[in-house]
């Protein structure tokens, strides 16, 4: 698996890319590299990473497991996980299966949540955000969902 490590901070950030753009544009932000240990990798079948040896596409869980394997290889116990587009779906699955490895979870334009095997659990949590939005909390706020994954 092809990966890039940059930065000098004590805390790690792992970027999981989407399906079209296989690079992490945030990796180029010097302020992040000065503050964090940045890890970006190409999922199987993208750029220099080997493809799967099957005609079947990998499952979301397989891809989340590969992210965990990379973190273990790099000896990263926990990280801020950033998923973009389809990578956001993988990041959600990762958080559900490897909660001890997640310091924070950041989703940038996540793809359809229905792709996640545990989609119903996550969709129930989204109801709280939708209710807050409908009550008028629409700008200048950050919303957090407790997925029940933190220790």
Description:
With 151 residues, this protein is an alpha/beta fold. It has one domain: Rossmann fold (3-Layer(aba) Sandwich). Helices cover 32% and strands 18% of the residues. Strands 1-3-2-4-5 form a 5-stranded mixed beta sheet. The protein starts with a strand and ends in a 17-residue tail after the last helix. 26% of the residues are buried. Mean pLDDT is 77; it is low at 141-151.
Count, helices: 4
Write down the domain tally: 1
The total of beta strands comes to 5
Describe the oligomeric state of these chains in a short phrase. single chain
How would the global form be characterised?
globular
Pick out its properties.
151 residues; alpha/beta; Rossmann fold
Record the SSE blueprint.
Elements: E1 3-6, E2 12-16, H1 30-35, E3 37-41, H2 60-73, E4 79-84, H3 86-97, E5 102-108, H4 119-134
Parallel strand pairs: 2-3, 2-4, 4-5
Antiparallel strand pairs: 1-3
Helix pairs in contact: 2-3
Short description:
By secondary structure, the chain is of the alpha/beta class. It contains four helices and five strands.
